Amino acid sequence: MTPAEPVVERLFDGKRLRLTLFCYGHRKLLVSFDNRMASRKGFAEVAPLKAFARSGFDQLALRVSKNDWFINDETEAVEAIMSQLAGEYDEVITFGFSMGGYGAFRFAKPLGASRILAVSPQWSIHPEDVPNDPRYRKDAHHFDRTLGAIPPTGAQGIIMVDPFNRLDLWHSERLLEMFPNVRRARVGFAGHPAGKVLTKTGRYPLLLRAITAPTPDRDLICHAHREARRDSPDYFRNLARYADTRRPEVASKARRLARRTERQAAEDQ
Predict the structure, then answer these.
(1) What is the rounded CA–CA span in Å between residue 239 and residue 229?
(2) Distance of alpha carbon 16 from alpha carbon 61, whole angstroms
(3) What does the alpha-carbon distance between residue 258 and residue 235 come to, in Å, rounded to a whole number?
(4) Strands (E), the chain
(5) Most buried of 38, 224, 235, 236, CB within 10 angstroms?
(6) In this predicted structure, what is the pLDDT of residue 238?
C-alpha cells in the first residue's frame, strides 16, 4: 500500500543542522542521519524512506551543512527537540550509514531508541580516540570530544560491517563493547559503507525487515548479502582489490565477474 503524503515540518533550521519531520500519523518513529559527502555544499535534499513509511513509521531526518558529524554549537538544541518529540512515540529506531551510523548511536539515548541499525559506523573521529584511523582527520579538526562521546544504552540493534575493512571492523568492536544488545552482521567485501551491495541490487527493504523483526535479525542481512553478491559489480571489485597481492588468480576472475555483472545490470535497465 502506498502511504498518503506526509505532513512535512521543519523542527530546526540552523546554519549547521536541519531537522525535518515527515508525519503520517503513525505511532513509530524512524530517525535517520546524514551520511558523509566528500563534495558537500550545504544541506542536501531529504525525502522519507518509502519502505519505512509503508511499514507504519513517521520519519525524522537530521541533516548537516558540513561534515561535522552533527557535533557543533547547535547539537544540544537539536538534541532537546529530538528528546521531546520522541516521547510522543511508542517506538523509536535510529538508522544511518558511516557518519550517519555514528549519529544513530550518538543520539540513541536522548531519543530513547529501542533499536539501532548502523552501516559501517564510527564510534569516534577524535584523534585521541582513534589514532589508528586517519580517514576523517579533516572533519575532526573542530570535533568536540566531550559533546561527541556516545552514551551507551541497552538498545538492541545491528551493525553491518565488511570484516575485510579493518578500520570499520575496529570501530564496530568498540561499539559492541558499549552496546551489549547490538549484534554484528559481517558482510564480506561489501566495502564502505557496507550496505552498497544490498541497496544497489534492490534488497534495501530487507534492512527494514531485519531491524523490525521481534529480535533484530542479523542472519537475514548476512543471507541477503550472500544472495546479492553474485549480482554486484561492487562486491567483485572489492574482492579483486583484496586478492591482488594474495591470490592474483582470484583477483583476475573477480574482475571478469565485475565486468560481466556490470554489463548485465546495464542491459536490465
Answers:
(1) 10
(2) 14
(3) 8
(4) 7-13, 17-23, 28-33, 57-64, 91-97, 115-119, 156-161, 182-186
(5) 235
(6) 95
Could you give the CA distance from residue 240 to residue 262 in angstroms, rounded to a whole number? Answer: 15
Rounded CA-CA distance 186/161 in Å is 5
Each residue's pLDDT tens digit, 51-79: 899 999 999 999 999 999 999 999 999 99
pLDDT at 269: 65
pLDDT per residue as tens digits for the range 150-209: 999 999 999 999 999 999 999 999 999 999 999 999 999 999 999 989 998 988 889 999
4 vs 120, more confident: 120
DSSP lists the bridge partners of residue 59 as 22, 30
pLDDT of residue 226: 95
Q: Minimal CA–CA distance to 121: which of 160, 83, 87?
A: 160
Cα angle 94, 202, 241 (rounded to 5 degrees) comes to 90
Cβ neighbours of residue 16 under 8 Å, at least 6 residues apart?
64, 65, 66, 68, 72, 73, 74
Cα 53 off chain centre by:
18
What's the pLDDT at 2? 56
Report domain extents, the chain: 7-227, 232-269
Rounded to whole angstroms, how far apart are CA atoms 93 and 190? 24
Cβ atoms within 10 Å, residue 8: 12
Size of the chain in residues: 269
Instruction: Give the list of residues 6+ apart from residue 126 with CB closer than 8 angstroms, or none.
Output: 140, 143, 145, 148
* 44: β partners: none
